[in-house]
Amino acid sequence: MTAYFVLSTGRCGTQWLAETLQLWSDTFVVRHEPLHFQYRPDLNSPSAPLAHNAELLNAHLDFIQQQIAQGYTYIETGFPCWRHLDWFRQHLKQIKVVHIHRDPLQAVHSLLKLNAFVPPFLPHLPIKNLYLPSDEQDLLLQHKALWSELNPAEKNLWYWAEVQHQALRYQQHWPEADWLSLSFSELFSAKSQQQLATFLDTPTANYWPAQQKVDQFGLAMQSQPLEFPRLCQFDEIAQLAKHLGYASPWPDKSS
């Protein structure tokens, strides 16, 4: 049997997707962010996936292997596993990936509603760092010294770029038949339903309650401005956005 992982920044419909896919087949074991932030994507990296929480991560791998050994298809959605897919691939016989990407400015706006990278009101509370620059594979590692000077919107955009960059790195070395890319803007369409059904080898996937999708943070306040005074000099982000079919976050840099 196969293990499937959804790769995204978060805020891409993955919780809704998990609830939907669980109803497609009794042979599916679907988990949405099963370890939550214990993957430590801020401190672990593709080159050092077990630097933190190794025991917990290995126990999770054992759980996945048990599900597959019992004849189930394992499906994991949510953002935290994005830096561990090569590690999973080394230990699981067959692993397939669904890459869900989203317009960079929309993604940043949505992530800021969750206060990602936003300093907390109370100084003793931790910052919700979804990523920290560290790995030699990182797209913008050469600019690491600027990280502490960035505003929350810039850090979220940097994070968006690193997730997409890592996804494209994975895809270069992944069998074409084991990789599916979907845009968030089309995720709830009949076309995506058919693509997912084919990819998951589930021809009778009729449950698709797109009309019931709800963004539980849709009305949350977003108090941080979408300004990128330092990142706008990084053409790598604009080119990455264009590669995925989106406009540059700063249109004057898109040509």
UniProtKB/TrEMBL annotation:
<protein>
    <recommendedName>
        <fullName>Sulfotransferase</fullName>
    </recommendedName>
</protein>
<dbReference type="InterPro" id="IPR027417">
    <property type="entry name" value="P-loop_NTPase"/>
</dbReference>
